[in-house]
Each structure stands twice: as structure tokens, then as C-alpha cells.
Amino acid sequence: MSRAVSLLMVLMLGGVARAHLGNENDTEVRIYSDRMQVVTRTSIPFAWRLLGDRAPALADDAGKDRARPLLVAEAAGLFKLTAGGKELPLIKSDCQFEVANDVAFVLTYPRPTGWPVEITARYFDSLTNLDSGTVRVFDFKAARFNSDLDPLAEGIIHQGRPSLSFSLETAASSEKATPELIGQAGVQPQPEAPHGRQWAMVLPGACAVLFLSWMVRRRLRS
């Protein structure tokens, strides 16, 4: 019986670790060839806090249906995005209720043409000074396999530092180390090893092989 109870507690803790239960929130900035999306996953308590007195009494299916259009409208004010110092216009906002009672806010913007891009969270005014969130930026245009994509930038945001800035232009230029630019960018080509050094590395191994072959033949003859 005790083993069964322990197993049940482990399973429950595993579910808690995967779900958003408080004011924590995780944001992904996804840059595509024709647009940029900001996807924030958080909890129902966080979403209900945004609605205030308009929040339904229960977070059942009926309550979620009533809350969704209100949250779609609230999603537009979650962030402020600027590109090259100019504010990016919001194209579309959406809200979806996901598994484990997670709430996903999806904001669509035009693809930035100026850099750097700065994303600033506006929702910390309704949270405590102990609440924080994470932001990760992904360049999906340059990704061959999205599941293996490393973030272009990432950081923790909170009331004292609600913003994160990044520049796709800088990252793209730093990755271009074409042969004609080598040297101009301060990257010097590695010289090939002289032939004498190559023989110095190969000769001891060759001598050892010949010596072992000679010893084997000598023992076979004896």
C-alpha cells in the first residue's frame, strides 16, 4: 500500500512539473521568413488575473468558452515590440487552452526589417515582484530541423528587467565566414602542417609496426 501511495505521489509531482500552476510563463519568439510570432504559455490563474473581475467563477469548459474572447483581447497588451526603435504593429492575437490547464497566447507581427528587436513584457504590473518569466528567440527561417534548433537569444525577465533585445542581423553576419572575407573579419586561416612535421608524426608509429612484425617473424622461425 505504501509503495502504491509513493508511486502516486511521484506521478502527481511529475504532472505538476510539466504544468503551469502559478504566475510562471515561458515565451518563445519565432522568426519566420514572412512573419514573427510570440507564443507565451502560462497558467489559468495567470490568465484569470489578467481578466480581474471579468474572470469566470469556474475554469470548466463553459468558463473557458466565456473567457477566451476576453483573453484574445487581453493578449494584445501583453508585450510591446520595437524593431530598430519603431514599434511593431500587431497583426493578430489568439488564445488557446492546452493540456494540463496551460494557456497559450499567440501574437503575430510582421517580420522585422530593422534591428535590434526589443520585446518588453507589460504584464508584470499585475504580478508580484517575485514573479518572473523566460524568453527564448528562434530563427525558424535558418532551421533545417526545428526540434534541434538552438535559441538565438534567451533570458529571464521580471519587474526590474522586463525586456530582452536581440538582433538577427548580427547573428547572421557573424556566421558568414566566407573565404574572401577571411582575414578582413580578423579570422586567419590555419596553415597546413609542413611535410617534415607530418613525417615526424607518422614515422614513430610506422617504426613500431615494423619492429613488431620483425619480432613475430623471428619467434615463428625459432
Overview of the molecule:
The protein contains five helices and ten strands, in the order H-E-E-H-H-E-E-E-E-E-E-E-E-H-H. With 222 residues, the chain is of the alpha+beta class. It has a six-stranded mixed beta sheet. A hairpin with a 3-residue loop joins strand 1 (25-31) and strand 2. It is elongated, with a radius of gyration of 29 Å.
Write the layout of secondary structure elements.
Blueprint (H helix, E strand, L loop, with lengths): L1 H17 L6 E7 L3 E9 H8 L9 H15 L3 E5 L2 E2 L4 E6 L4 E9 L6 E5 L10 E8 L13 E6 L4 E4 L1 H8 L19 H27 L1
Parallel strand pairs: 1-8
Antiparallel strand pairs: 1-2, 2-6, 3-4, 3-7, 5-6, 7-10, 8-9
For this entry, give a set of tags.
about 220 residues, alpha+beta, six-stranded mixed β-sheet, 10 strands, elongated
> How are helices and strands ordered from N to C?
HEEHHEEEEEEEEHH
How many distinct folded domains? 2
**Overall mean pLDDT:** 78
* Overall morphology: elongated
Q: Decide which structural class fits the backbone.
A: alpha+beta
Cα-to-Cα separation, first versus last residue: 74 Å
Q: Classify the helix fraction into a percent range.
A: 25-40%
Proportion of residues in extended strands = 25-35%
**What are the low-pLDDT stretches, counting only 5+ consecutive residues below 50?**
1-18, 172-201
**Largest sheet properties:** 6 strands, mixed
CA radius of gyration: 29 Å
Number of strands: 10
Placed side by side, the strands forming the largest sheet appear as 5-6-2-1-8-9
Continuous helix count: 5
